[in-house]
Amino acid sequence: MKERLDNQGQLLPTCTCTTCGKDLDAATDPTGDARPKVGDVSICVYCATLNVYDNDLRFRKPSEAELKEIQKDANIQRLISIIKAHNKDLN
User: Fold this and answer.
1) Digitized pLDDT (tens) for each residue of the chain, 91 residues in all
2) Alpha-carbon distance 58 to 52, whole Å?
3) How far apart are CA 4 and CA 75, in angstroms?
């Protein structure tokens, strides 16, 4: 597993999902090797809900306006569906 690094190569803190409370200690960009930055969206691999990176690169819940925009993103919706299907197969 890759270290969890920010866009300056600094180690990121472990983040806690704002919905299920699970700790997440890794980040992956499905389109490449980008590192998370303030305002980026993260999908929890445990519960498939959305989190947004805050100024400290920790998770916060998306605002209503952010949520409306995120829900329009077909790639994010596809990834949520994949995570949910994968988690369902594990149970």
Assistant:
1) 445 665 566 777 889 999 999 998 777 777 766 678 899 999 999 999 999 999 988 999 999 999 999 999 999 999 999 999 998 887 6
2) 8
3) 22
